Amino acid sequence: MASMLMNSLRSGPVTSVQAARFAVRSLSSTAHLKAQAKSKKTLAKPGVRNIVLVDGVRTPFLLSGTTYSDLMPHDLARAALQGLLNKTSIPKDAVDYIVYGTVIQEVKTSNVAREAALGAGFSDRIPAHTVTMACISSNQAMTTAVGLIASGQCDAVVAGGVEFMSDVPIRHSRKMRKTMLSLNKAKTLGARLSLLGSIRLAHLAPELPAVAEFSTAETMGHSADRLAAAFGVTRVEQDEFALRSHTFAKKAQDAGLLNDVISFKVPGKDIVSKDNGIRPSSMEQMGKLKAAFIKPHGTVTAANSSFLTDGASAVLIMSEEKALAMGYKPKAYLRDFVYVSQDPKDQLLLGPTYATPKVLERSGLTMNDIDVFEFHEAFAGQIMANLKAMDSDYFAQTYMGRKSKVGAPPMDKFNSWGGSLSLGHPFGATGCRLVTTVAHRLQKEGGQYGLVAACAAGGQGHAMVIEAYPQ
Predict the structure, then answer these.
(1) Which residues form the Thiolase C-terminal domain (predicted)?
(2) Structural domains of the chain, with CATH
């Protein structure tokens, strides 16, 4: 597999200089972009309801183990929902349904959507359910909302996601669990003493949440390292891309462009109003870090990987007619979307490569029609490998059954307000951030079409086309 993938690089994909220097430019200078905005036809379809993103919010994304460390997942989800209520002023009983995504579930609040909704003050008559699809869990929440509205079941749905890595469920060993369950059922003192006597020291070893793919027993970091090696992505390329992400995120934060972030008063602590993982460094400092997964010669490090993050997001999705009837000015139309899956061993993180051409074909668009790209940055090596795969005829023909490549996104349109490497990646919440960012960038830059794409554990992926709402 690796040798075959290496052949795909010979068709001239993105070079390290092209993919890492990216013409860093002032984020406040958007007049030229607006002047260049193309006038394209709308993707509205006769007889199909227009579905709109009214608005979106998120809590600040924080490094796990920092200010949120004493909370629970539903606390963050509740804060995001309350922030959405405050920002949109939608009546609490005007929402028809609530869907939330999460990955590592807190057992006390397994349906975190319902618990957070009740805590946020939504009507107790609004149904709510929780979905999980690894890093595209809130993508799934949003497209579930789209389906409910498209089918006529609902007019207004809140979707979102939450992840809380500061406190994850840690179980007793299976033998210990079985003993404890038997102990709970034992009816006599003798039976209880016998069970207690059977406990061995080894039974007390805890089971941590799995960090490896169940089907392959390989961690995502190992997969990213192998993928980078297969596509010839160097350590320098990865560090340069990570530095780009942090640099752009800091500029966007300082310019006030990350206006989906709400302030959150953490009980017993200060008000949090900014992401705290944005840390522009230098190539020299990043180069000092050792390989994090494949040691000692791997290229994936802590500096060019997304970090464990706590955070929550929420978006209000409505039918256009309902939104306008309630006096809203939507941010964007949510158009076509696709989900894909492929081999979780060798192509675990290539979801964007497979999903992008499919969603463009569904929309009747090409890469040249897209004004804004927002891809999830799990690892710098993952992003670079996808860019090279997308720009390779060999890969398209050999692995995707396509006649030709779709092409790599122009880097001046790509993740220009930072990405998961710098902003953070709460697994269940990132999808809503991507979609909201596309809507805001389209407004700011005067573009019409945006494309979101993301990879996920299990070798899955998602892509969606978003159309700017007329100004």
Answers:
(1) 328-467
(2) 2-37+49-168+216-465 (3.40.47.10)
Give the residue among 308, 380, 320, 385 at the shortest CA–CA distance from 351: 385
Alpha helices by DSSP H, listed for 166-275, are 174-185, 189-197, 220-230, 235-254
Kindly list the distances between the CA atom of residue 6 and the CA atoms of 81, 296, 356, in Å, as whole numbers in the listed order. Answer: 46, 22, 21
Question: pTM of the predicted model, to two decimals?
Answer: 0.90
Angle subtended by helix axes 112-120 and 73-88, to nearest 10: 50
Say how far apart CA 429 and CA 293 lie, in whole Å.
Answer: 25
Sort residue 389 into left (φ over 0), alpha (ψ -120 to 50) or beta.
alpha
Catalytic residue positions, numbered: 135, 455
Report helix, strand or coil for 28: coil
* Tokens describing residue 231: 């596509």
- pLDDT tens for the chain, 471 residues: list them: 444 444 444 344 444 434 444 433 334 334 334 434 445 789 999 999 999 999 999 999 999 999 999 999 999 999 999 999 999 999 999 999 999 999 999 999 999 999 999 999 999 999 999 999 999 999 999 999 999 999 999 999 999 999 999 999 898 999 999 999 999 999 999 999 999 999 999 898 988 877 788 899 899 999 999 999 999 999 999 999 999 999 999 999 999 999 999 999 999 999 999 999 999 999 999 999 999 999 999 999 999 999 999 999 999 999 999 999 999 999 999 999 999 999 999 999 999 999 999 999 999 999 999 999 999 999 999 999 999 999 999 999 999 999 999 999 999 999 999 999 999 999 999 999 999 999 999 999 999 999 999 999 999 999 999 999 998
* CA gap 217, 240 in Å, rounded: 30
440 vs 72: CA distance, rounded Å: 29
